[in-house]
Amino acid sequence: MQKVTWEEVGAAPNAILSPAYKSNGHVFTSGSVGFAPDGTVPEDVTVQTKYAIEALEKVLKTSGSSLDKVLKVLLFIADPLDAPAVNAVYKEYFKHQPARSCVVVQFPDARLKVELECVAVYE
Fold it and tell me: Which residues are listed as membrane-spanning (predicted)?
């Protein structure tokens, strides 16, 4: 089992979790949320979804994988009415349609509207 570090990803360290772990040809990621590169939280769910997927993509790339190697996505959304907007962005990035679950949640930070985690293969 190999830990992927925040330093490798190029992000500020998070004391309570790792961005990903690699084991037996698979990458298991932590959740990625829609923070903008400057650390702010955009109000628009479409923009948050884009940033969250791009953050996930960076973790996967660091881990030797990519979005097109994702097998399973777990998607969390704060408002079920946002699902169509989230799905529109999601389809742009996940053209191969990996297995997916979607759960409506209440985030500890009320500004957050979307979070994604995944399992992917790596080489």
Answer: none
Q: CA torsion angle for 89, 74, 118, 56 (degrees, to 10)?
A: 40
Q: Strands (DSSP E) along 1-123, which ranges? A: 2-4, 20-23, 26-29, 32-33, 70-77, 99-104, 114-121
| Distance set, CA 52 to CA 2, 5, 9, 25, 91 (Å) | 23, 18, 14, 24, 14
Give the Cα separation of 63 and 82 in Å (integer).
30
User: 33-78 pLDDT, tens per residue?
Assistant: 999 989 899 999 999 999 999 999 999 999 999 999 999 999 999 9
Q: Which pLDDT does position 15 carry in this prediction?
A: 72
Mind listing the pLDDT tens digit for each residue in 76-113? 999 999 999 999 999 999 999 999 999 999 999 999 99
Domain locations in the chain as residue ranges: 2-121
